[in-house]
Amino acid sequence: MADDTKGYVLDNQVGYLLRRATQRHIGIFGQALPELTPTQFAALAKICELGAVSQNALGRATAMDAATIKGVVDRLRDKGLIASTQDANDKRRLLLAASDEGRALYESLTATALRISAETLEPLSEDERIAFVEMLARLG
Amino acid sequence: MADDTKGYVLDNQVGYLLRRATQRHIGIFGQALPELTPTQFAALAKICELGAVSQNALGRATAMDAATIKGVVDRLRDKGLIASTQDANDKRRLLLAASDEGRALYESLTATALRISAETLEPLSEDERIAFVEMLARLG
DNA sequence: CCGCGTTTGTTGGTGTACAAACGGATTTTG
DNA sequence: CAAAATCCGTTTGTACACCAACAAACGCGG
Q: Where does the HTH marR-type domain lie (chains A, B) (predicted)?
């Protein structure tokens, strides 16, 4: 029977550990970059990366469903970081683009964002960070 | 300058990857165990693990703040899986305990829960799973 | 060109998640 | 012992996150 195999222990389950790690990361993010939430920053980053996109396409690019991306886009627009216009060729589509302020903010914040990633991974050694991120990407 | 060092790419950031991995895990959980959410199952598991606890203590044991655990406890009680009574020694406290149904459900579901964890980690090799979970625990 | 399936964005509902503020109970401390 | 600090649970407000249902617009096959 050896050790404690076979028992269910919450604290060892991936799902629980993922939740805790995410909580810690969001805490670090909020400390270092209070202007935007991680989700808002992700959406802004993707808009800057992709140029003009429709709202749903942005959602797909950032792993948010249609209902979620709507709220995020609304908040970014309220802050004046992005602008939306009707697509002339397809009247259903909202074309989104970063405003000058949005792009400037994004560019001024990428260094901070990288620092946040580093701080999140800080409990791991150099080699471990690389291996961990690579494995994590496979779980997405 | 070698490769692409230095640039900020959303898809390589831990926070984003954590979010995606969590999404996938929650999807797997919902498929395999639709009766409860991952959070509700975590709370029920901890109650069964710890015996009687106060509401806030349960929150701390499951990494949920007071406002969050309240909603989770309310829903578990609505389902008849846990019961709450006033603590006689400390009139502030709500003492929580699993009902017979709650305990039975928990015990009948631990095997499924373990299978969910395994399926979440399925893209990794045996050795990788162990290393990954250990590192993930350090990030919490 | 017409109908039908699909896509786009919106809304409503549920469930985490956290901050801030609160009243009441308890504990600590002067 | 009385005042201060703390802890308990609750409420309110904001922000994801997803499901299901919807109307308008699009596009394709017949």
A: 11-140
Where on strand C do bases come within 7 A of a protein Cβ?
7-13, 15-21, 23-27
- Residues B103 and B106: their CA atoms lie apart, in Å, by 5
At the top level of CATH, which class does the domain A10-118 belong to?
A: mainly alpha
**How many Cβ pairs within 8 Å bridge chains A and B?**
135
What is the rounded CA–CA span in Å between residue A19 and residue B12?
19
pLDDT tens column, A78-134: 999 999 999 999 999 999 999 999 999 999 999 999 999 999 999 999 999 999 999
User: pLDDT digits over B90-138, tens only?
Assistant: 999 999 999 999 999 999 999 999 999 999 999 999 999 999 999 999 9
**CATH fold label, B10-138:** Arc Repressor Mutant, subunit A (1.10.10)
Distance B32 CA to D16 C1' (A): 23
Q: Return the axis-axis angle of helices B126-138 and A14-32, rounded to nearest 10°.
A: 40
Domain limits, chain A: 10-118
Find the Å distance, CA of residue B12 to C1' of nucleotide D20. Answer: 33
Q: Give one DSSP letter per residue of B56-109, joined into a string.
A: HHHHHHTT--HHHHHHHHHHHHHTTSEEEEE-SS-TTPEEEEE-HHHHHHHHHH
A34: left (phi over 0), alpha (psi -120 to 50) or beta: alpha
In angstroms, rounded to a whole number, what is the distance separating the alpha carbons of residues B44 and B48? 6
The residues that bridge with B83 in the sheet, in sequence order, are B97
Three-class SS of residue A2?
A: coil
Location of structure tokens 């009247």? A91
